[in-house]
Amino acid sequence: xxxxIKGLHHVTSLASSARANNAFFTDALGLxxxxxxxxxxxxxxxxxYYGDAAGSPGSVxxxxxxxxxxxxxxxxxxxxxxxFSVPAGSLKAWADRLTQYGADKMxxxxxxxxxxxxxxxxxxxxxxxxxxxxxxxxxxGNGVGEEMAIRGFHSADMRLQDDGASAELLKFMGYxxxxxxxxxxxxxxPGGNExxxxxxxxxxxxxAAGQGAGSVHHIAFxxxxxxxxxxxxxxxxxxxxxxxxxxxxxxFWAIYFRSPGGVLFEVATNExxxxxxxxxxxxxxxxxxxxxxxxxRERLERTLEPLEG
Length: 309
Ligand code: ZN
Fold this sequence. Notes:
By secondary structure, the chain is an alpha+beta fold. The protein has five helices and 16 strands.
């Protein structure tokens, strides 16, 4: 069993309008945009990152907005709900705030004894705010005060036809099964970064999900550095997983592999972080391009949708 993985690093999803996506995450949810760059593999679209002040691993929700993308089809083999951690007692204030901002399909429930507020993002993305005791320091620079601000991820919820093989994989990655309730099994990684919970929801008779706007593209797990990442890569290869080479994403190093239930997994390093190419006081303000796409700047500044803030 591996011990290098410390929880989620980031979650990356697809969107349609970059402007609506940016407004929702910075205004309604009050996160900080910590990077405005492009998809390194498809530089004609943005890659937008939202998180806490520094974009700490475990706090970073990222998006590839494709302007005319059709919505994804919900189903098996994807991350259903992405959950953020908020202070106990703040859900009422969040429900009021999200109503004001026009969030869709709000409802409240309880999962494993904690209260959740479920809602959808601009592309039908499924989110929850989960009340928890969480010491992480929130970003409060966008008008959401400390008493309710998002602390980072709480968990991601994978919806799978066959949950067995993915459960085995999570255990191999260092997660432990902590609770089970009906079709939902909760896993947590000991000594993690607070974004250390994964739920697996078994939906054996559901049809396969179809990826589109509002779908999670992949979830990334955090490792401290490149040495730990190589250990994880070797172990996955030895177990028979097809893992990509290490890829330089400028703000972290990444490897990718497909989990047995269909969800794309990434393992990303905590180093070097989002202040590697701009001052931490101005993270996310200017368009940053990786060196391989720097020559596209003039065109991209003309064609990418302008964003507020
Ligand atoms: Zn990623």
